[in-house]
Prior knowledge:
4-stranded mixed β-sheet; 14 strands; Alpha-Beta Plaits; 14 helices; alpha+beta; 10-stranded mixed β-sheet; VC0802-like; 35% helix
Amino acid sequence: MTILETAKKIIDEGPICDNCMGRQFAKLSTGLTNVERGRAIKLALAMEGDQIFKEKGEDSILKELAPSSVFARKSLGIDGEDEKCWICLGLYDDLNIWAERAIEAIGDAEYSTFLVGTKVSGLLAENEEILWSECGIMHAEQFKTEMNREVGKLIAERTVKDVDFERPEVLFILDIANEKVELQIRSLYIQGRYRKLIRGIPQTRWPCRICGGKGCERCSFTGKQYPESVDELVREEIVKICAADDTTFHGAGREDIDALMLGTGRPFVVEALNPSVRSIDVAELEKRINAFAGGKVEVEDMRIVGKEVIETLKTSRADKVYKLKVTFNEPVPREKLISAINSLAGAEISQRTPQRVSHRRADLVRKRSVHDMQLLELTDEYAIIQVRCEGGLYVKEIMSGDDGRTRPSLTGILGTQAKVTELDVIEVDI
Length: 430
């Protein structure tokens, strides 16, 4: 079937605008807009109708082209006014309106790149499917594809922003059925390292175990298991400086609530959600976070990064260095303790998921290595032991043995119970 034969079938279905006519043949040529294609096809049909009229008379037009010639002539303005397109329902006449809606929706938010998407109504989708089925359309471009492109051109012209098909900072979604524009603003990712200088603070927000975050007497109606976290102490100033809705905290592992995070700190990325400000002074942000945290948490080395850094943090198994304060059920001679420590240095540890985290971790047996272990101090009350080990190893259980779930352990080797009373993370090697 030729292009004009297909076009006649299309027009026989009802009035059609230049955009929608051109879209049905969009994949057959380059260098033309759909409007230009559609108008050229209609002009060819009108000219064919005029030729038949001059050569054979009006009756022949009605037999050979009706109603194709009539619709083609009307849409070109040759015979009377245009009729509304039954496929797009006249939406291509409203491109400027949609562009203005998008610009109004983003307001004063800072962005440099964008992309347009369209949420097509059920009626529009059905109209397009009917046309393709009835007319055997094989080379069409979807309505939403052209809508995205044409509205995108208008937004770019009026805002002097760039279209980005890969990672736009703003996605405008044209909701046709509800006649509104929805926004998806790409998060801003800020990487840094934090030190936790007091005990009793979790890394991230914990909802109350009783009410699940709704608020109850147990949590003083805060909805929180703990009053504050590293996450919240860092979050406050980021929300302010980025004019963001909220943040999500991504850490390279985590330390226990009762542990300190010292040394060079733990790497983290904070994701600022729906930020209205993207150009931020990270040095100033560091100062503001550290002042707000009041000596409980310190951050440093902050910088803007891409989303892919989160995956690196989550999947890397960084070596860690711990300093442990360990007590024993009975006195342990120095020589015996040093011998036990030396036997653990370089050992592979077989570790079943510890009892203390079994409610939130899969019950597995993991193999992890202890790279080095040293006795730093020994008194009558406790020992200070430093451990360098592979990431993912539960270091408290290397001391306690966890009722035999961790083997070998200091408890197992000494024959007396060892317990970690204080734990400091000294280094996270990423």
